[in-house]
């Protein structure tokens, strides 16, 4: 079960510097802070980048910290760490940055480093409850449940009745076999925040451990009402019903069979649900159908599917959006001076019609006329990638970036290709693309970099 703890609630209040001196020009820092407050993280990031560029001679740790905050919320944890590093380099006692960097390490499952940062934050500010909460979560992940509970207790002293802390303490108690104590904490958390599905699921699991399947079913029933798209929760609902021998629904109510069917509708490779449905079918006397499900469960269990990278989803629509964006930026030039442009645009047209090989010929001609044509290198790289020549595609992206250091789309495509080649530095390229304003990069970071 996953518990999500947001980055510091007071993060946006960390700016202790006067902004009044910047009234004569666009105040990117203040705009970014307001955008962070409203959850407009992509635009906030762009404004913080502009502020950082503007104040390069006298860098402001607040700008780096808040850009890191925006990246964190866009799930770009690696990029966030780089910004928090810079904030701490500029301001060594920045305890909020230690907590934020620790939370970023935690999101990458690097809990030992996260705990080091939380320790330093607590040394700098021993009355900050968020630091104890975050350190407790990392200890919990490292299976130091008693140490985690000690931190959660301290956090609750400083921040009483905070539902997320109660919920993670409940999880630690459950891991130690204290199911009654776990249920008590979940009860309090749910009383404070009634509609949190992870709290209800956590309490349901604790109830299952003490064989209270009726009580657990009541919680899972509420969960699937709130989040009907979760295959796993439908499976557990079915499991409780199977334990209660409610195999087939009656009087309009779903039984275990219907719940397992729903779980498999949402996730056809849910092995547990496949097995559960086979069990129920056997109980209902349909042995042939039961054997089919058991066989599929075994087959799925032995089948390690390769991870499908985002490249498989980078289809014609998105590529055309990238191409059209470049065309929009291109200005019409005189024919005699712009012969490279003619070949470039013909290459784009060929690529759009599905002929990347001929497109490459035109991009080659464009580059021969205009050797510093960054867009042509970039598009040639995309065409090479579509033909399976990933190494040379990366080289063309390198050329484009060398010629235009702010070429966000080139960083994006290079990052995608690197990930396809199992090169995790692709995540840094995606982070740079997002930093330069290509917001689509954060969708890939969220799915493949964490």
Explain this structure:
The structure is a single chain. This protein is an all-alpha fold and 450 residues long. It has 3 domains: 11-160, Serine Threonine Protein Phosphatase 5, Tetratricopeptide repeat (Alpha Horseshoe); 211-301, Serine Threonine Protein Phosphatase 5, Tetratricopeptide repeat (Alpha Horseshoe), CATH 1.25.40; 310-448, Tetratricopeptide repeat domain (Serine Threonine Protein Phosphatase 5, Tetratricopeptide repeat), CATH 1.25.40. It is 69% helix and 0% strand. The chain is built from 24 helices and no strands. The protein has helices at residues 28-37, 41-54, 61-73, 77-90, 95-107, 111-124, 129-141, 145-158, 163-175, 179-192, 197-209, 213-226, 231-243, 256-266, 271-283, 287-301, 316-329, 339-352, 356-369, 374-386, 390-403, 408-420, 426-435, 441-448. The longest helix is centred in the middle third of the chain and has 15 residues, at 287-301. The chain is flat.
CATH topology of the largest domain: Serine Threonine Protein Phosphatase 5, Tetratricopeptide repeat
How many β-strand runs?
Answer: 0
- Report the major sheet: none
Instruction: List the helices and strands in order.
Output: HHHHHHHHHHHHHHHHHHHHHHHH
Task: Give the count of structural domains.
Answer: 3
Corresponding CATH architecture of the largest domain: Alpha Horseshoe
CATH homologous superfamily heading of the largest domain? Tetratricopeptide repeat domain
CATH class of the largest domain: Mainly Alpha
Class per helix and strand makeup: mainly alpha
Q: How many DSSP H or I helices?
A: 24
Share of β-strand residues: under 5%
- Return residue spans where pLDDT drops below 50 for at least 5 consecutive residues: 1-24, 303-310, 333-337
């Amino acid at each position: 079960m996953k518990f999500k703890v947001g980055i510091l609630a007071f993060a946006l209040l960390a700016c202790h510097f006067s902004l009044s001196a910047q009234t004569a020009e666009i105040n990117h820092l203040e705009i970014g802070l307001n955008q962070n407050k409203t959850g407009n993280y992509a635009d906030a990031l762009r404004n913080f980048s502009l502020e950082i560029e503007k104040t390069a001679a006298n860098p402001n740790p607040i700008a780096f910290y808040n850009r890191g905050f925006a990246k964190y919320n866009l799930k770009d944890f690696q990029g966030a760490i780089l910004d928090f590093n810079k904030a701490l380099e500029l301001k060594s006692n920045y305890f909020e940055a230690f907590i934020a960097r620790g939370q970023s390490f935690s999101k990458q499952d690097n809990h030992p480093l996260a705990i080091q940062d939380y320790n330093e934050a607590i040394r700098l500010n021993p009355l900050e409850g968020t630091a104890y909460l975050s350190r407790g979560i990392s200890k919990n992940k490292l299976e130091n449940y008693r140490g985690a509970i000690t931190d959660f207790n301290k956090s609750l002293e400083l921040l009483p009745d905070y539902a997320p802390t109660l919920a993670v303490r409940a999880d630690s108690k459950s891991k130690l076999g204290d199911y009654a104590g776990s249920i008590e904490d979940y009860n309090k958390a749910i009383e404070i925040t009634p509609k949190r599905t992870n709290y209800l699921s956590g309490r349901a699991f604790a109830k299952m451990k003490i064989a209270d399947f009726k009580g657990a079913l009541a919680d899972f029933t509420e969960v699937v009402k709130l989040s009907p798209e979760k295959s796993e929760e439908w499976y557990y609902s079915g499991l409780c019903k199977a334990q209660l021998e409610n195999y087939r629904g009656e009087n309009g109510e779903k039984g275990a069979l219907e719940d397992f069917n729903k779980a498999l509708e949402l996730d056809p490779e849910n092995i547990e649900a496949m097995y559960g449905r086979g069990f129920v079918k056997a109980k209902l006397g349909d042995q042939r159908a039961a054997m089919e499900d058991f066989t599929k469960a075994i087959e799925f269990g032995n089948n390690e599917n390769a991870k499908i990278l985002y490249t498989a989803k980078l289809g014609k629509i998105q590529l055309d959006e990238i191409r059209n964006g470049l065309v929009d930026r291109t200005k019409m030039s005189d024919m005699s001076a712009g012969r490279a442009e003619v070949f470039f645009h013909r290459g784009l047209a060929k690529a759009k019609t599905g002929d990347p090989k001929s497109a490459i010929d035109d991009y080659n001609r464009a580059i021969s006329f205009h050797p510093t044509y960054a867009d042509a290198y970039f598009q040639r790289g995309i065409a090479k990638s579509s033909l399976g020549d990933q190494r040379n595609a990366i080289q063309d992206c390198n050329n484009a970036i060398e010629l235009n250091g702010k070429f966000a789309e080139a960083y994006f495509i290079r990052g995608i290709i690197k990930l396809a080649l199992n090169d995790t530095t692709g995540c840094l390229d995606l982070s740079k693309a997002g930093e330069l304003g290509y917001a689509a990069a954060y969708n890939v970071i969220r799915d493949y970099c964490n």
